[in-house]
Fold this sequence. Notes:
Strands 1, 4, 5, 6, 7, 10, 11 and 12 form an 8-stranded mixed beta sheet that branches. With about 400 residues, this protein is an alpha/beta fold. Strand 17, helix 12 (about 350-365) and strand 18 (about 370-375) form a beta-alpha-beta unit. The protein has helices spanning about 35-45, 60-65, 85-100, 115-125, 170-180, 190-195, 215-225, 230-235, 280-295, 300-305, 315-330, 350-365, 380-385, and strands at about 5-10, 30, 30-35, 50-55, 80, 105-110, 130-140, 145, 150-155, 160-165, 170, 200-205, 240-255, 260-265, 265-270, 270-275, 335-340, 370-375, 390-400. Helix content is about 30%, strand content about 25%. The protein has 13 helices and 19 strands. Residues about 230-240 have low confidence and may be disordered. It starts with a strand and ends with a strand. The longest helix is centred in the first third of the chain and has 13 residues, at about 85-100. About 40% of the residues are buried.
Amino acid sequence: MTQKIGVVIVAAGSGSRFGDPLPKQYHQLGGKSLLAHCVDCFVGHTSADLIQIVYNPIHQDWYEDAMSEVACKADIPMPVNGGQTRQQSVLNGLRALAGKSPDVVLIHDAARPGISDAVISRVLHALETHAGAIPTLPVADTIKQTDENNIILRTISRDSLHRAQTPQGFIFKTILDAHSQFEGQEQTDDASLLEQLGLDVVCVEGAAENDKITQRDDFGRAQNWISPTKMNKMKDTAMPQEEYRAGTGFDVHRFAPGDHCILCGIKVPHTARLEGHSDADVGLHTLTDAILGAIGAGDIGQHFPPSDMKWKGAASDIFLKHAADLVRQRGGRIVNVDLTLICERPKIGPHTSAMRQKVAEILAIDIDRVNVKATTTEKLGFTGREEGIAAQAAASIALPIT
């Protein structure tokens, strides 16, 4: 009898160790997100309606962008919210699948985009005779155990040591009961729950390309994890040729009575505020125009007319996010942005790090693709007289050649 296979893909993490505002599961590899790579692989082994994604609801926009890259997205259930721990996130996913009564379940981390059909098949085959099965790789390095002062206590034989990967597969009822029993107790992985219950979990052969992406440098290696066949398929379908475009922006706002300015989404203390129809964020306005210019989409005033009272006092991150969304709707990506704020005061330098972080979050790009700097006009002109702030920006984007 054919087994009914459920899948839980854990994609709720913030990727704090990755060091980027965009969680790693939503980063692009070979033309599509890590999450989309995982979903596409599992669809070949089960029906789409049995693939349950666990996510963080504050990532909704990024999630939708990622799922737009998946061919069968219409059949995949709505994601369920993750928990405070990975174990709680997995349990939430298992409970969401319970009503569909799968025979077995595969639990996979979305940060492993190199998952292959062969690894999945080995796990599923092992579940025909075991309660649990996980892919592993032998440990290649010599292992040393040390004390609290890093003094070596002993060398551990590596002959019986294995590095665990995912997907970890289980009889569905067994792993659901185990997770429910240990709810609230964080475990290192799902197999450890069955180990504590005295149930056998067998190791099957994993794959080097299935290693987890944890640090930024892992992306460079991941380019080689995708098999030649898969890479060739991407080149034919998911990686169209690109053309690079550049756009520029310039904006000016005068000072008015107040006690702070909003610059690049950051509240900067000052003896005046900037005057404008929205929050008068001259930095984000200028970046918005630069991106719109790069895709030939006019300027900020055409998209958000100052005559429309709907935008009175609006936060300018709305405008910048709109411009970024237009780029993505065309299948493009923002390569980098560079902004210069021109004023005598307030002093911008102490705030540039926070500004870069905020812009990167709004655009959903790596922070090293964002530059914010400041200069003065040596007391010349309206900025020199401290009557306002000017800003200029450049943006480069990549668009597929159609």
